[in-house]
Design brief:
16 helices; single chain
């Protein structure tokens, strides 16, 4: 005899998603534009490298396997730094989740972001769900994900900026290097001035944001709200010195381990890059990876790496092999490992107790592709100010 009692829905702390019009789930025009961009990258950057592939087979025979293993190890260390980074941002509620579970959650979100174009919002939504199902309050989970994301992005740009400023007087300016350096400095300077101007409440900064958005035919209200939210997150981060120190330390270690992994993979194919050249290529490529064209920046980021490294004097053939091995460790291996670790959160002895609320990863990827929620849309679910207009500050574990 069956039990007539209906199942009790699982409360994960999530907010109900807004209703979406069925006709807006598919955007063939946007897909066509992205397809054309990918075709452009393949034709102008990947195809010219094909004649070197046959000669590159000889280079593979000279590879140093020990360095490949070391590069993979550095990449795993870079991935692990997100565990203490997220734990610091969660605060005292982090005691509800073990470090091993946080690592499995981090790798699961990494896997989803690598298979969905513009997957940062999708991975944030999955990370929020897994954290709340693990006992972390929804407000703390949303705050931690936002702070960790903003802090990590700011640290990456500071590393790139500092490297550019140090390297220009040493290397001088040539056609390739000067263009990349000048563009990077100008863009980061404008972004920094606008964000910190909004933090100080200056109306001129908001007017500048709206003017730039209109010039690029974007929604100026949405652009202003997005930068206001970034400014408020930074203000929250700067108001807590202990949290700021931990975020800066772990974010810096994560990016440096990642860059060191790239250096080791290149060295495995007998390419020795100067530190400043490597960090510039690494920083610009990771900034490009934030543009949601293909999952994980596949294709255009790889081509960007090879062209920039070749511009700094590396052999294009060897650079292509080194970048391919690095991207396997940085993109494909974490995606495979993250999928397996996500499965361990659903089934088995180390699963989340309420695993019935977790769907298979491929179903989540399909849903997020249709949803097309941006990182800004996700972040809007978590207010940065209370009813009095004061910034919301989370207590640290030391308080």
């Amino acid at each position: 005899m069956t039990d007539p009692t209906p199942p009790v829905p699982v409360d994960t702390g999530e907010r109900p998603s807004a209703a979406r019009e069925p006709g807006r789930q598919r955007r063939p025009f946007r897909f066509t534009i992205k397809l054309l961009i990918v075709a452009f990258v393949v034709y102008y950057f990947v195809v010219p490298l094909i004649p070197d592939f046959e000669q590159a087979l000889h280079e593979i025979q000279r590879v140093q396997p020990v360095l490949l293993v070391a590069g993979l190890g550095l990449q795993m260390m870079a991935l692990w730094t997100y565990v203490p980074l997220t734990r610091s941002a969660i605060g005292e509620a982090a005691e509800q989740v073990s470090s091993t579970r946080l690592f499995r959650i981090q790798m699961s979100t990494r896997a989803l972001s690598s298979i969905v174009p513009g997957g940062s919002a999708a991975s944030s939504a999955l990370g929020y769900r897994l954290l709340t199902m693990s006992g972390v309050p929804g407000a703390d989970a949303g705050f931690a994900l936002a702070i960790a994301g903003v802090g990590s992005a700011v640290v990456l740009n500071l590393i790139l900026w500092a490297t550019l400023l140090i390297s220009i007087p040493i290397r001088g300016v040539n056609a390739f290097y000067g263009t990349a350096a000048l563009a990077g400095v100008i863009v980061m300077t404008i972004a920094g001035v606008l964000v910190f101007g909004l933090m100080e409440g200056q109306g001129r900064a908001e007017r500048a944001v709206r003017w730039i958005a209109r010039k690029f035919r974007l929604d100026d209200d949405r652009a202003a709200r997005a930068l206001h939210r970034v400014a408020e997150r930074l203000e929250q981060l700067l108001s807590d010195r202990q949290l700021l120190a931990r975020v800066v330390i772990w974010s810096t270690l994560g990016w440096l381990f990642n860059a060191a992994s790239l250096w080791v993979f290149l060295r495995a194919f007998n390419i020795t890059m100067d530190v400043d050249a490597l960090l510039i290529a690494f920083g610009i490529a990771n900034v490009l990876a934030a543009v949601p064209i293909t999952p994980g920046g596949l294709g255009y980021v790889d081509a960007g790496y090879v062209s920039m490294l070749a511009g700094f004097g590396a052999s294009a053939r060897r650079a292509a092999l080194g970048v391919a091995s690095y991207r396997f460790a940085q993109l494909f291996f974490p995606t495979i490992l993250g999928g397996l670790l996500y499965l361990s959160l659903r089934v088995g002895p180390w699963s989340i107790v309420r695993r019935d609320g977790l769907k298979p990863l491929h179903e989540l990827a399909e849903e997020e592709s249709l949803k097309r929620e941006s990182t800004f849309d996700f972040d809007l679910q978590f207010p940065t100010r209370d009813d009095t207009g004061q910034l919301i500050r989370r207590p640290s574990r030391d308080e």
